[in-house]
Design a protein that fits this description.
Order of helices and strands: HHHEHHHHHEHH
Number of strands: 2
Number of helices: 10
Structural class: mainly alpha
Largest sheet: 2 strands, antiparallel
Distance between the termini: 33 Å
């Protein structure tokens, strides 16, 4: 009888957390759908920014209604009051994500027949005209996924089962959410899961949510805008640049982009290890381990 009571007590906290997260997801999806109904006819180049903005508003509302108002979690617990300062954490994250993406591409070029080549004549204005709306889209898309997979859901789950198990669960969910992307493979799914662990480590670091948001943005934007490489299977063609994967997809990821190859595995493991080490050195910060 004692064992049954103990088991029931231990199972209650995860069950309650899952219920809260389900409510959060319901509010977020519902609000996003409503915002998406607003009739807008923007320039087609801004499609990613506009669609991501609707999701940011939806899951931002869910964070406030469910996380702050109903479940009474502080902004600090939700990751929005980092010890490093918000703007600094965002910039640090963008820089770290950019360096990691550039390292992955450099490894792909060094390890096979991958190439980043010039295409046509270079024109700054044409590249800028394409890069600005895409950059805004990547910034908002990164925030959308951080609100959905880190933020309130990760914090709520970590309070119930611990930071390490919560990170693993959220990473698996992040991987499964990308399973239907173009050219997805088993290898790419594992790497996206590792990316989820890396971003969770950023969330639990002194930089908290702004660092995770910046890192996510820096990774995606550098791949697409810096090297014209696919991001999670989606290609974003740019003037003057062309990404040409080599014959060994297990190295460079092939059509899925570097996230589908071992180059991403290496940088994700390295980036996660660096973040966990940083968090462990910072007193009073819960590392994802």
């Amino acid at each position: 009888m004692t064992a049954r009571v103990s088991f029931a007590h231990r199972a209650r906290a995860p069950a309650v957390a899952v219920a809260w997260i389900a409510l959060f997801a319901g509010v977020g999806v519902g609000a996003s759908v409503v915002v998406h109904q607003v009739p807008l006819h923007p320039d087609p180049r801004w499609w990613l920014a506009w669609s991501s903005l609707a999701s940011v508003l939806g899951f931002g509302l869910a964070t406030w209604v469910v996380g702050r108002w109903l479940d009474r979690r502080s902004w600090e617990a939700l990751g929005w009051r980092p010890r490093t300062g918000g703007a600094r954490a965002l910039l640090l994250g963008a820089g770290a994500g950019g360096v990691m993406a550039a390292t992955a591409v450099a490894l792909a070029v060094a390890g096979g027949q991958t190439a980043v080549a010039a295409r046509g004549e270079w024109a700054v204005w044409s590249w800028t005209a394409a890069a600005l709306p895409l950059g805004a889209g990547f910034l908002l898309a990164a925030l959308t996924e951080e609100l959905m997979f880190r933020g309130y859901p990760l914090r709520r789950l970590a309070e119930a089962v611990g930071a390490g198990p919560a990170t693993a669960i959220a990473g698996a969910g992040f991987a499964l959410a990308h399973l239907g992307n173009p050219s997805a493979t088993a290898f790419s799914t594992v790497n996206v899961g590792l990316a989820g662990v890396w971003l969770a480590a950023a969330f639990f670091s002194p930089g908290a949510m702004p660092l995770a948001w910046g890192a996510h943005f820096g990774w995606n934007a550098t791949l697409a805008l810096g090297f014209a490489a696919p991001v999670s299977g989606y290609a974003f063609p740019l003037p003057a640049l062309e990404y040409r994967p080599g014959p060994h997809a297990w190295i460079d990821g092939g059509a899925f982009g570097p996230e589908g190859g071992i180059v991403a595995t290496l940088v994700m493991l390295g980036g996660t290890a660096a973040l966990v080490a940083w968090s462990r050195r910072a007193p009073g910060v819960q590392a994802a381990s």
